[in-house]
Fold this sequence. Notes:
Endonuclease, Chain A, nine-stranded mixed sheet, 16 strands, about 35% helix
Amino acid sequence: MTKKKLPRSPLVCLLLAVYALIVYSSNTPSPTALPTAHLPLQLYSNQVEGNLQKTFKEAILNAKESITCIIYALTDDEIITALRKKAEEGLDVTIVHDPVATQNISFRLGPKVHTSSLRNKGLMHHKLIAIDHKQVWLGSANLTRDSLLLHANLVVGLDSPEWAAAIEQKAQDPQKRRYKQPLLIQTNEQKLELWFLPDAPQALDRLLQLLDSAKKTIKVAMFTFTHPKLIQALVDAHKRGVNVEIVLDSDSSRQTSQLAYQRFKREKMKVLVSDRMGLLHEKIAIIDDSQLVAGSTNWTKAAFTNNHEALCILSDLSKEQQSFLHRFWTTTLQESKP
């Protein structure tokens, strides 16, 4: 006796279709908008519907000539495999890394990747990539699985042969100071500044100038915050009526950044701590919704005087960039608590 199949209700069919679409979408990679001459500057964050591991991997696999990477920590298997693959295809791949945070990397990358380590007075804390002598990546993300997928990070990608050349020359001799700083470029009527630390101690003065010039809002998301001058600059801005919002990493707010956190609390400022599963690893400030400070630089004395760092300032933010940062900041606040 053959059993008759019961007809499925429209609701069941709809649910099955939605489930199939979700499964398909999760397993089908969507193209990432990489920076080009036509889209010269892009912002990326794993807090704003982004997958930094996928973004970096795609950028590396799309390389045609060369990849130069100056990085504090490189341990992610997929990124290492992609770098090794491009070197074996004949591309010039160069990696400069911190010897403590990144160990035994030459063996994993293979003999065709040029590797060297750097540590002097401070950390080799850069997170810089130059691809094909024109595509530049910088921000707070290390090339580790946790940093790319779990921790909160923001990355700037742009098309700039000038900045790419600076990164490539920095990789050849990280100690040598070659440029009058900052390195200024103009793209789509937008001014961008790149500061290499510790080469340019005046970068701190430039950041203080930006904070002192704020008229309406300052939003800061910071992993480690201890620099007394920067703490005071935010307090002063609050006292002159600027709406200052600060989000700190949870562990750091109880340890390294505790004095800053307590000072902001005493001044009755809006200071929150991240409640997300991973680290809040950001090093950013958004000023009057028109300027973005980003890069590898924590707001500490060591970062501005001893470490090898990069500080990037983007002015005249576009409407698209402002919209992205609005979503970024909304998510940052939603993932935080007093």
